[in-house]
Amino acid sequence: MTAQILDGKGLAEKIRAEIKDDVAAFTRQTGITPALAVILVGDNPASQVYVRNKELACEKAGIRSIMHRLPEETDSEELVALIKELNADKSVNGILVQLPLPKHIDEKAILDLIDPQKDVDAFHPENVGLISQGRPRFLPCTPYGIQQALIRYGVETRGKHAVVIGRSDIVGKPMALLLTQKGEGGDATVTICHSRTQDLPEITRQADILIAAIGQAQFVTADMVKPGATVIDVGMNRVFKETIDENGKPQKVSKLVGDVDFDSVKEVAGLITPVPGGVGPLTVTMLLLNTLNGARRQIGAQK
Ligand code: NDP
After folding, report:
1. Catalytic residue check, 54
2. Is 199 marked active-site?
3. Over residues 270-293, mean pLDDT
Protein backbone atom coordinates (compact mmCIF):
# COMPACT_ATOMS: atom_id res chain seq x y z
CA MET A 1 0.00 0.00 0.00
CA THR A 2 1.27 3.46 -0.85
CA ALA A 3 1.80 5.86 2.05
CA GLN A 4 -0.34 8.91 2.75
CA ILE A 5 1.56 12.09 1.93
CA LEU A 6 2.11 14.54 4.76
CA ASP A 7 1.52 17.76 2.85
CA GLY A 8 3.82 20.18 4.65
CA LYS A 9 3.15 22.97 2.17
CA GLY A 10 -0.63 22.76 2.61
CA LEU A 11 -0.34 22.50 6.39
CA ALA A 12 2.07 25.43 6.48
CA GLU A 13 -0.43 27.57 4.56
CA LYS A 14 -3.13 26.69 7.08
CA ILE A 15 -0.95 27.52 10.08
CA ARG A 16 0.29 30.73 8.42
CA ALA A 17 -3.32 31.86 7.93
CA GLU A 18 -3.90 31.30 11.67
CA ILE A 19 -0.73 33.24 12.51
CA LYS A 20 -1.77 36.09 10.19
CA ASP A 21 -5.08 36.42 12.08
CA ASP A 22 -3.26 36.33 15.42
CA VAL A 23 -0.74 38.96 14.28
CA ALA A 24 -3.59 41.22 13.13
CA ALA A 25 -5.35 40.81 16.49
CA PHE A 26 -2.10 41.48 18.38
CA THR A 27 -1.45 44.64 16.35
CA ARG A 28 -5.04 45.85 16.87
CA GLN A 29 -4.77 45.36 20.61
CA THR A 30 -1.28 46.74 21.18
CA GLY A 31 -0.62 49.05 18.24
CA ILE A 32 2.61 47.08 17.69
CA THR A 33 3.63 45.28 14.52
CA PRO A 34 5.85 42.30 15.43
CA ALA A 35 9.28 42.68 13.82
CA LEU A 36 11.95 40.19 12.85
CA ALA A 37 15.51 41.31 12.11
CA VAL A 38 17.38 39.02 9.73
CA ILE A 39 21.14 39.22 9.25
CA LEU A 40 22.72 37.72 6.15
CA VAL A 41 26.48 37.91 5.77
CA GLY A 42 27.97 37.14 2.37
CA ASP A 43 26.45 35.90 -0.86
CA ASN A 44 25.83 32.18 -0.34
CA PRO A 45 23.15 31.50 -3.00
CA ALA A 46 21.16 29.01 -0.87
CA SER A 47 21.18 31.42 2.10
CA GLN A 48 19.95 34.22 -0.14
CA VAL A 49 16.97 32.09 -1.21
CA TYR A 50 16.18 31.08 2.41
CA VAL A 51 16.35 34.69 3.58
CA ARG A 52 14.14 35.90 0.73
CA ASN A 53 11.56 33.19 1.61
CA LYS A 54 11.57 34.31 5.22
CA GLU A 55 11.16 37.93 4.18
CA LEU A 56 8.16 37.10 1.95
CA ALA A 57 6.57 34.90 4.60
CA CYS A 58 6.85 37.74 7.17
CA GLU A 59 5.30 40.21 4.76
CA LYS A 60 2.32 37.92 4.10
CA ALA A 61 1.75 37.32 7.82
CA GLY A 62 1.80 41.04 8.70
CA ILE A 63 5.20 40.79 10.42
CA ARG A 64 7.77 43.49 9.68
CA SER A 65 11.06 42.06 8.45
CA ILE A 66 14.17 44.17 8.83
CA MET A 67 16.90 42.93 6.52
CA HIS A 68 20.59 43.44 7.17
CA ARG A 69 22.55 42.22 4.14
CA LEU A 70 26.25 42.51 4.92
CA PRO A 71 29.25 41.86 2.67
CA GLU A 72 31.30 38.66 2.96
CA GLU A 73 34.27 40.59 4.39
CA THR A 74 32.25 41.88 7.38
CA ASP A 75 34.32 41.34 10.52
CA SER A 76 33.19 40.00 13.89
CA GLU A 77 33.29 43.44 15.51
CA GLU A 78 30.80 44.89 13.03
CA LEU A 79 28.49 41.94 13.52
CA VAL A 80 28.76 42.14 17.30
CA ALA A 81 27.91 45.86 17.17
CA LEU A 82 24.85 45.19 14.99
CA ILE A 83 23.55 42.44 17.29
CA LYS A 84 23.99 44.65 20.35
CA GLU A 85 22.07 47.40 18.59
CA LEU A 86 19.22 45.00 17.68
CA ASN A 87 19.17 43.55 21.22
CA ALA A 88 18.63 47.06 22.59
CA ASP A 89 16.03 48.08 19.99
CA LYS A 90 12.58 47.67 21.59
CA SER A 91 10.87 47.65 18.19
CA VAL A 92 12.71 44.41 17.25
CA ASN A 93 11.08 41.26 18.64
CA GLY A 94 13.14 38.55 16.96
CA ILE A 95 16.72 38.30 15.68
CA LEU A 96 17.90 35.68 13.22
CA VAL A 97 21.42 35.22 11.92
CA GLN A 98 21.34 33.17 8.72
CA LEU A 99 23.83 30.31 8.86
CA PRO A 100 26.43 29.46 7.76
CA LEU A 101 28.47 32.57 8.56
CA PRO A 102 31.74 33.14 6.65
CA LYS A 103 34.59 31.04 8.01
CA HIS A 104 36.46 33.97 9.61
CA ILE A 105 33.56 34.56 12.03
CA ASP A 106 33.03 32.44 15.15
CA GLU A 107 29.43 31.30 14.65
CA LYS A 108 28.80 30.12 18.21
CA ALA A 109 30.19 33.34 19.75
CA ILE A 110 27.85 35.40 17.56
CA LEU A 111 24.76 33.30 18.29
CA ASP A 112 25.49 33.45 22.02
CA LEU A 113 25.27 37.25 21.86
CA ILE A 114 21.64 37.34 20.74
CA ASP A 115 19.27 38.35 23.54
CA PRO A 116 17.62 35.02 24.56
CA GLN A 117 14.25 36.83 24.60
CA LYS A 118 14.69 37.57 20.88
CA ASP A 119 16.33 34.27 19.92
CA VAL A 120 13.62 33.02 17.53
CA ASP A 121 15.84 30.16 16.30
CA ALA A 122 16.22 28.90 19.89
CA PHE A 123 19.97 28.34 19.51
CA HIS A 124 21.07 30.28 22.62
CA PRO A 125 22.32 27.99 25.43
CA GLU A 126 19.77 29.53 27.82
CA ASN A 127 16.92 28.57 25.49
CA VAL A 128 18.38 25.11 24.84
CA GLY A 129 18.58 24.62 28.62
CA LEU A 130 14.97 25.65 29.07
CA ILE A 131 13.87 23.20 26.37
CA SER A 132 15.81 20.38 27.97
CA GLN A 133 14.10 21.12 31.30
CA GLY A 134 10.70 20.97 29.60
CA ARG A 135 9.86 24.67 30.07
CA PRO A 136 10.71 26.13 26.67
CA ARG A 137 10.70 29.82 25.80
CA PHE A 138 11.21 29.30 22.05
CA LEU A 139 11.25 25.98 20.21
CA PRO A 140 13.70 25.53 17.31
CA CYS A 141 11.79 26.00 14.07
CA THR A 142 12.43 22.71 12.24
CA PRO A 143 11.72 20.30 15.14
CA TYR A 144 8.79 22.52 16.22
CA GLY A 145 7.31 22.34 12.70
CA ILE A 146 7.73 18.56 12.62
CA GLN A 147 6.08 18.15 16.02
CA GLN A 148 3.14 20.30 14.91
CA ALA A 149 2.80 18.23 11.73
CA LEU A 150 2.72 15.00 13.75
CA ILE A 151 0.05 16.45 16.06
CA ARG A 152 -2.11 17.86 13.29
CA TYR A 153 -1.92 14.64 11.25
CA GLY A 154 -2.98 12.67 14.31
CA VAL A 155 0.25 10.68 14.57
CA GLU A 156 0.41 9.15 18.05
CA THR A 157 3.80 9.76 19.66
CA ARG A 158 3.03 8.62 23.19
CA GLY A 159 4.79 5.34 23.94
CA LYS A 160 5.92 5.02 20.32
CA HIS A 161 9.49 4.40 19.26
CA ALA A 162 10.88 7.43 17.42
CA VAL A 163 14.26 7.12 15.74
CA VAL A 164 16.07 10.32 14.80
CA ILE A 165 19.01 9.99 12.40
CA GLY A 166 21.30 12.99 12.96
CA ARG A 167 22.53 14.68 16.14
CA SER A 168 23.03 18.29 15.04
CA ASP A 169 22.22 21.13 17.43
CA ILE A 170 19.80 22.54 14.87
CA VAL A 171 17.70 19.48 14.06
CA GLY A 172 18.60 16.05 15.47
CA LYS A 173 19.21 16.83 19.15
CA PRO A 174 16.32 19.26 19.69
CA MET A 175 14.00 16.95 17.73
CA ALA A 176 14.82 14.12 20.11
CA LEU A 177 14.29 16.45 23.09
CA LEU A 178 10.85 17.53 21.90
CA LEU A 179 9.73 13.95 21.32
CA THR A 180 10.78 12.93 24.81
CA GLN A 181 8.98 15.81 26.56
CA LYS A 182 5.84 15.03 28.51
CA GLY A 183 2.57 15.83 26.77
CA GLU A 184 1.09 16.23 23.30
CA GLY A 185 3.56 15.45 20.51
CA GLY A 186 5.92 13.93 23.08
CA ASP A 187 6.11 10.97 25.45
CA ALA A 188 7.93 8.94 22.80
CA THR A 189 10.76 6.51 23.40
CA VAL A 190 13.58 8.06 21.38
CA THR A 191 16.74 6.69 19.82
CA ILE A 192 19.28 9.09 18.30
CA CYS A 193 21.53 7.72 15.56
CA HIS A 194 24.56 9.27 13.88
CA SER A 195 27.52 8.38 11.69
CA ARG A 196 29.05 6.13 14.40
CA THR A 197 25.87 4.14 14.98
CA GLN A 198 26.27 0.44 14.33
CA ASP A 199 23.63 -1.62 12.52
CA LEU A 200 21.64 1.48 11.60
CA PRO A 201 19.02 -0.35 9.47
CA GLU A 202 18.39 -2.72 12.37
CA ILE A 203 17.49 0.29 14.55
CA THR A 204 15.53 2.26 11.96
CA ARG A 205 13.38 -0.81 11.22
CA GLN A 206 12.12 -0.59 14.81
CA ALA A 207 10.88 2.98 14.36
CA ASP A 208 7.20 3.84 14.47
CA ILE A 209 8.34 7.36 13.62
CA LEU A 210 11.54 7.76 11.62
CA ILE A 211 13.08 11.21 11.24
CA ALA A 212 15.99 11.62 8.84
CA ALA A 213 18.20 14.71 9.29
CA ILE A 214 21.44 13.54 7.73
CA GLY A 215 22.26 15.65 4.68
CA GLN A 216 22.84 12.69 2.36
CA ALA A 217 20.67 12.30 -0.70
CA GLN A 218 18.19 9.38 -0.61
CA PHE A 219 20.09 7.64 2.20
CA VAL A 220 17.07 5.96 3.81
CA THR A 221 15.82 3.12 1.64
CA ALA A 222 12.71 0.94 1.86
CA ASP A 223 14.53 -1.93 3.61
CA MET A 224 15.31 0.44 6.52
CA VAL A 225 11.67 1.24 7.21
CA LYS A 226 9.06 -0.61 9.26
CA PRO A 227 5.83 -1.17 7.32
CA GLY A 228 3.29 1.52 8.19
CA ALA A 229 5.85 3.85 9.87
CA THR A 230 5.67 7.64 9.72
CA VAL A 231 8.71 8.91 7.84
CA ILE A 232 9.79 12.54 8.16
CA ASP A 233 12.44 13.71 5.72
CA VAL A 234 14.33 16.82 6.86
CA GLY A 235 17.10 16.57 4.27
CA MET A 236 17.57 19.09 1.49
CA ASN A 237 20.19 17.94 -0.96
CA ARG A 238 20.83 19.30 -4.40
CA VAL A 239 21.75 16.55 -6.87
CA PHE A 240 22.93 17.06 -10.43
CA LYS A 241 21.97 14.93 -13.40
CA GLU A 242 23.46 14.98 -16.89
CA THR A 243 20.86 15.19 -19.65
CA ILE A 244 21.03 15.89 -23.37
CA ASP A 245 19.23 19.02 -24.55
CA GLU A 246 17.31 19.32 -27.87
CA ASN A 247 20.53 20.30 -29.69
CA GLY A 248 22.24 17.11 -28.54
CA LYS A 249 24.43 19.00 -26.06
CA PRO A 250 25.02 17.56 -22.56
CA GLN A 251 23.43 19.64 -19.85
CA LYS A 252 23.55 19.52 -16.07
CA VAL A 253 20.18 19.88 -14.34
CA SER A 254 19.79 20.10 -10.58
CA LYS A 255 17.05 18.68 -8.42
CA LEU A 256 16.26 18.99 -4.73
CA VAL A 257 15.97 15.62 -2.97
CA GLY A 258 15.63 14.56 0.64
CA ASP A 259 17.53 12.12 2.85
CA VAL A 260 14.87 9.52 2.10
CA ASP A 261 14.51 7.56 -1.13
CA PHE A 262 10.94 8.76 -1.51
CA ASP A 263 9.84 6.48 -4.37
CA SER A 264 10.78 3.22 -2.67
CA VAL A 265 9.99 4.24 0.93
CA LYS A 266 6.48 5.47 0.12
CA GLU A 267 5.59 1.86 -0.77
CA VAL A 268 6.41 0.75 2.79
CA ALA A 269 5.64 3.74 5.04
CA GLY A 270 2.19 4.72 6.34
CA LEU A 271 2.77 8.47 6.18
CA ILE A 272 5.66 10.32 4.50
CA THR A 273 6.82 13.89 3.87
CA PRO A 274 7.89 14.82 0.33
CA VAL A 275 10.91 16.97 -0.58
CA PRO A 276 10.26 19.71 -1.51
CA GLY A 277 6.92 20.57 0.10
CA GLY A 278 7.37 18.73 3.39
CA VAL A 279 9.39 20.00 6.34
CA GLY A 280 10.83 23.13 4.67
CA PRO A 281 7.63 25.25 4.58
CA LEU A 282 6.84 24.27 8.18
CA THR A 283 10.23 25.53 9.37
CA VAL A 284 9.59 29.05 8.07
CA THR A 285 6.07 28.96 9.52
CA MET A 286 7.36 28.30 13.02
CA LEU A 287 9.75 31.22 12.66
CA LEU A 288 6.71 33.47 12.18
CA LEU A 289 5.02 31.98 15.23
CA ASN A 290 8.18 32.41 17.34
CA THR A 291 8.40 36.08 16.31
CA LEU A 292 4.77 36.69 17.29
CA ASN A 293 5.22 34.86 20.60
CA GLY A 294 8.42 36.80 21.26
CA ALA A 295 6.52 40.06 20.76
CA ARG A 296 3.71 38.87 23.05
CA ARG A 297 6.16 38.01 25.81
CA GLN A 298 8.13 41.22 25.43
CA ILE A 299 4.95 43.29 25.75
CA GLY A 300 4.05 41.32 28.87
CA ALA A 301 7.51 41.96 30.28
CA GLN A 302 7.33 45.68 29.51
CA LYS A 303 4.00 46.21 31.27
P1 NDP B 1 24.52 18.23 10.02
O2 NDP B 1 25.48 18.00 8.92
O3 NDP B 1 24.82 19.24 11.06
O4 NDP B 1 24.24 16.85 10.76
C5 NDP B 1 24.07 15.66 10.05
C6 NDP B 1 23.94 14.52 11.01
O7 NDP B 1 23.77 13.33 10.26
C8 NDP B 1 25.17 14.33 11.90
O9 NDP B 1 24.77 14.11 13.24
C10 NDP B 1 25.86 13.11 11.30
O11 NDP B 1 26.51 12.31 12.26
C12 NDP B 1 24.67 12.35 10.75
N13 NDP B 1 25.11 11.46 9.67
C14 NDP B 1 25.86 11.77 8.60
N15 NDP B 1 26.09 10.68 7.84
C16 NDP B 1 25.48 9.65 8.47
C17 NDP B 1 25.37 8.28 8.21
N18 NDP B 1 25.95 7.72 7.14
N19 NDP B 1 24.67 7.51 9.07
C20 NDP B 1 24.10 8.04 10.16
N21 NDP B 1 24.16 9.36 10.47
C22 NDP B 1 24.85 10.15 9.62
O23 NDP B 1 23.12 18.55 9.29
P24 NDP B 1 21.78 19.30 9.82
O25 NDP B 1 21.20 18.57 10.97
O26 NDP B 1 22.01 20.74 9.92
O27 NDP B 1 20.86 19.07 8.52
C28 NDP B 1 20.53 17.77 8.07
C29 NDP B 1 19.81 17.90 6.74
O30 NDP B 1 18.59 18.63 6.95
C31 NDP B 1 20.55 18.69 5.66
O32 NDP B 1 20.23 18.14 4.40
C33 NDP B 1 19.98 20.08 5.75
O34 NDP B 1 20.07 20.78 4.52
C35 NDP B 1 18.55 19.78 6.09
N36 NDP B 1 17.85 20.83 6.82
C37 NDP B 1 16.58 21.11 6.41
C38 NDP B 1 15.82 22.03 7.07
C39 NDP B 1 14.43 22.27 6.59
O40 NDP B 1 13.82 23.24 7.00
N41 NDP B 1 13.89 21.39 5.77
C42 NDP B 1 16.35 22.79 8.20
C43 NDP B 1 17.68 22.39 8.62
C44 NDP B 1 18.39 21.43 7.92
P45 NDP B 1 27.84 12.81 13.06
O46 NDP B 1 27.32 13.75 14.11
O47 NDP B 1 28.41 11.58 13.62
O48 NDP B 1 28.71 13.50 12.05
Report:
1. yes
2. no
3. 98
